[in-house]
Amino acid sequence: MKNTIIFSLGALVTMLFAFSYQSPDDKDYSMGRVTRMSGKYIFINCEPSNDYEVVYEVKTVLLGGVTSINALVDAVLVNTKKMEKKDPKPYDALIIGSNKYDLAIKFKD
């Protein structure tokens, strides 16, 4: 009886260690910092981890291709500012390249 209890406890401790072990491949390296341009956070081909609501869907057509990331962001900012003049709404960030349209978003509090 005593041997059974000791064996059971040993097996339980071994299982706890086995299931709690994380290999280096299990680490989450996806968190990062994003750049701000013109006072807005810029997410390129990624999405924020915080909850948000979409303020504007921005269609950006670049004639002649993109010469740099900054040129892409500038084009989206220009188009967003045009939309903002027609229908002023505050927004905190831009999500570029992860949807059909680029998005101007407002973070939920």
Which descriptors apply to this entry?
109 residues, alpha+beta, five-stranded mixed sheet
Please, could you describe this protein's structure?
- This protein has 109 residues and is of the alpha+beta class.
- Helix content is 34%, strand content 23%.
- The protein has a five-stranded mixed beta sheet with strand order 1-2-4-5-3.
- The mean pLDDT is 82.
H/E element sequence: HEEEHEE
Helix content bin: 25-40%
Number of strands: 5
- First-last Cα distance: 58 Å
**Chain-averaged pLDDT:** 82
Unreliable residue stretches:
none
Strand content: 15-25%
Query: Which strand order do you get reading across the main beta sheet?
Result: 1-2-4-5-3
Derived structural class: alpha+beta
Overall spatial form: elongated
Rounded to an integer in angstroms, the radius of gyration calculated over CA atoms is 24 Å
Q: Please report the number of helical segments.
A: 2
Biggest sheet record? 5 strands, mixed
Gist of the model:
The termini are far apart. This protein has two helices and five strands. Helix content is 34%, strand content 23%.
Spell out the blueprint of helices and strands:
Elements: H1 2-20, E1 35-37, E2 40-44, E3 52-58, H2 69-86, E4 93-96, E5 102-107
Parallel strand pairs: 2-4
Antiparallel strand pairs: 1-2, 3-5, 4-5
